[in-house]
Amino acid sequence: MPMEHKNTEVWYRLDLSAIVYPTLQRRDFSSVYRLSVVLKEEIDPEMMQQAVDLVMPRFPTYKAAIRKGVFWRYLEPNNRPGPFVQPDVKNPCQPMHFKGNNRYLVRFYYYGGRIALEAHHSLGDGTGGMCLLMTVTAQYLQLKERVHIRPEGFVLDPGSKPDPEELEDAYMRYANARVCPPRPQEKTYRVRGTKEPFYTLNIVDGIMSVSQVMQAAKRYQATITEYLNAVLIAAMLQKQEQEHRRRQLPVKIAMPVNLRRFFPSKTLRNFITMIYPGVDPRLGEYTFPEIVRQVQHYMRYHLDEKQLRGDITTNAATQRHPLIRVVPLFIKDFVVRQFYTKVQDKNSSAGLTNMGALQVPDSMTPYIERFDIYMGQPFSSRTNCAIISYGDVLTINFASSIIEADVERYFFRRLVRDGIHVKIESNRSQEE
Amino acid sequence: MSYCVNCGVELDGALTECPLCNTPVINPRELSRQKKQSPYPEEKGTVESVRRKDLGILTTSILGATAVSCGILNLLVFTGAPWSLTVIGACLLLWVMMIPLVIYSRQSVYLSLLLDGVATGLYLFILSFLTADRSWLWGLGIPIVILVTVLAELLTICIRHLPSSFLTNALYVVSVIGLLCLGLELLIDRYVSGNIALSWSAVVLTVVGVVDVLLITVLSRRRLRNEGRRRLHF
Question: Are residue B150 and residue B97 in the same domain, yes or no?
Fold first, then answer.
């Protein structure tokens, strides 16, 4: 919720998730995610800049700079010039320094027909970012193609005032379970690979038909998310087996869940929690249908309003604790970083997010080809996988900072074996 | 349109090899194909560098101003003894210690520790001008500074280059504390009486030895470690 001082200057507390991301900031790492839309026509950068300038004031928590207080960081409105539209680069999701880029924590890129938005996770999650990207895209199309686009779904009206609910920390509204269930803490398999040089992010995009993936998933009586999760787990298991480790470890996938599905909120800030579907190869060899079943049971058990409420309450309990609140920020930073590096980051072998099927206003449909989503640079050497679909196009975007593409290879080969036609795009090998 | 013969996936026209298995893309029908525009730009981006020198400038100017003004006061007003040397030395010592924090954050930790040791030695040297007898400097002060610097460097090497966990770090720290106590007693004995005889440091060394054996045993037995974790979790 925005806080007002006597001089009416507004500032925002960081939400529960956003508190963690700035503490993980390193010279070579920021929690930056990327969303992009591919239009059928080439982008006009000047008009795109106009669209960005018109839309940004509608998103006060994105037109913001992050600042350090004594006990917590906070967001304050940023009235410096920008953010400026720039040509896209081969190595996206670069670190985002808080004092660089005129203190903006968003970047806008264009390349061919693509409009890309990169945002620091401390501002908001994929849903909030998608609202910003879609509103900019709608505004751009209104300027360029002179079409009228009615604000609906992810497209907001740039002329309207932000709803206070859009700026709220929704976690605090729903963190009211009477018990705090323990966090999962288990060391999991980590991909061993050769680290790429500084600032290199390897991307492999798989483009396929939604109906073909759905057909394959139906063969295992699973949803698309369950099926793709199982494929990623199978790929990681195969990779672990090929490494001939002395001691095998469980393979778990960190999967963000959009809490808006369970707890009504219009917030554009972070409102996600993590679940960790996976299998433990020490219990025996799993066939693929068994992995699917395991994922299915796990997800259906954990994707429940009560379970998620407990999870949010556990996370919020730390932030609410009066003793923790009065600890100076630099000590909190140190402790959170240690906890994340030693425990949280080891909880999962890879990340997978599914943004689901995107709906756009009808008047935008003729101009849009597809959407892409990247979870960004992983904190440690591993692979992150993000899925999004639009119409009948499903895009699976892998981002990693290691040279080897074994997980991606096993993943896509499994899809091909299941009868799915996959088209691959990548920044890994292209004609110089 | 080309497919990877190994992976069975269709490859984008701009790809020269399959990004999944590195198999080169050769389409016999399109040997002289037109280069297709890649979905990714070829230009690499760089991160904007940020000036973080404000705190460094502030620290340098405050410490510099304190040292200079005390020096002037000592020269012109309170001229009895060279008391400003203590302040000037302290400012210099603080400034050297602040270098990796606010001035040059990429400075090697080993160099930082070495510079800290040199600065402390220099400070003691300055202080020795205020005392009548300067034998303590070379007999006790400088050897202790050298001992502490060497042990700090050794501890850093262990933590950074040997296997690192909470227990191993505890092992390194406890061992270094033992060595420090031993070294201190030897240096003090040599300076005070000229005879080297272990007394209190022998007690510390015994305790350190017991703790080290305990830590090594726990480190080498997974079951013990897990048991400890279970019983001591908070």
Answer: no
Q: How many whole angstroms separate alpha carbon A47 and alpha carbon B3?
A: 38
Same domain (yes/no): B148, B215: yes
3-class secondary-structure state, position A107 = strand
Model confidence at B74: pLDDT above 80: yes
d(CA A336, CA A318): 11
Q: Where are the alpha helices (DSSP H) in B79-221?
A: 84-98, 109-128, 135-136, 142-161, 166-192, 200-220
Chain A CB within 8 Å of residue B227 CB: no
Residue B230: the pLDDT is 64
Task: Give the CA distances from residue A385 to residues A124, A186, A255, A411, B153, in Å, rounded to whole numbers and listed in that order.
Answer: 19, 21, 10, 10, 42
Which pTM value belongs to this model?
Answer: 0.74
Classify residue B232: in a domain, yes or no: no
In a domain, B113, yes or no: yes
The tally of domains found in chain B comes to: 3
Which of B6, B11, B20 to mutate: most A Cβ within 10 Å? B20
Q: Domain check: are B8 and B82 in the same one?
A: no
**B215 is a domain residue:** yes
A330-354 residue pLDDT tens: 898 888 888 888 887 888 888 999 9
Q: Which two tokens stand for residue A275?
A: 């679940």
For residue B12, the enclosing domain spans 1-37
B48 in a structural domain: no
Q: Which of B15, B21, B40 to mutate to test the interface with A (most CBs of A within 10 A)?
A: B40
Residue carrying structure tokens 């490494």: A243
* Domains within chain A, CATH numbers bracketed: 2-174 (3.30.559.10)
**Looking at the structure, do residues B149 and B206 belong to the same domain, yes or no?**
yes
- CA-based nearest residue in chain B for residue A408: B20
- Rounded CA Rg of chain A: 21
Same domain, B86 and B11: no
CA distances from residue B184 to A114, B75, B200, B212 in whole angstroms, order as listed: 67, 38, 10, 20
- Please name the member of A89, A94, A424 whose beta carbon is closest to the beta carbon of B20: A424
Q: In DSSP terms, which residues pair with A206 in a beta bridge?
A: A396, A424
Based on the fold, state whether residues B26 and B65 are members of the same structural domain.
no
In this complex, the residue of B21, B38, B50 whose CB is nearest that of residue A97 is B50
CA distances from A7 to A4, A10, A11, A425 (A): 8, 9, 12, 52
Nearest CA in chain A to B14: A430
Please give the Cα distance from B129 to B83 (Å, whole number).
Answer: 10
| Residues in Cβ contact with A281 at an 8 Å cutoff, skipping those fewer than 6 apart | A237, A240, A241, A248, A250, A251
Pairing of strands A251-258, A106-111: unpaired
Tell me whether B167 touches chain A (CB under 8 Å): no
Quick one: B58 and B101 in the same domain?
A: yes
Q: pLDDT tens for residues A293-321?
A: 999 999 999 898 888 998 889 888 888 88
Complex confidence, ipTM:
0.79
Taking CA atoms, what residue in B is nearest to A415? B9
Closest among A111, A146, A150 to A134, alpha carbons compared: A150
Q: Which of B130, B148, B183 is the last residue of a domain?
A: B130
